[in-house]
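hey can u check if this looks right to u? its 120 residues, i copy pasted from the old doc so theres a chance i mangled smth
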Amino acid sequence: MVMLTPEQVFSVHPNIVISVFGTVKGKVVFREVRAGAEPKEPSSDVILAFDLRAEHLTETQKRLSPYIGGTECLIGCYEQFNELIVFHDDRYLVAVFTKEIDVQTMRNLSSKLRNLLAST
């Protein structure tokens, strides 16, 4: 089993500025901002909110899966960035993109990120 790294996530697309890998049990394996990227590291309160949100969404999709099937990805478009969350078992991977990336490109990248997550 290979350990996933932030560099592997960043290598998927140059517009990924933050990568987060965690579990529904609350463990954040890594959270990293790409060197030289904007935004700079958010405050600890913002980081905690992001982590809790990702855990909640992961657990929610797991509970709903008997009714809706598996969740391929979740895409959020915000004023300052775009976010893609992919799932595998009880783990999740978050990729935060600059606003320059379009939603269809993010959707296309979701399979690459899911494959990375599944390989760990």
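The two ends are 6 Å apart (CA to CA).
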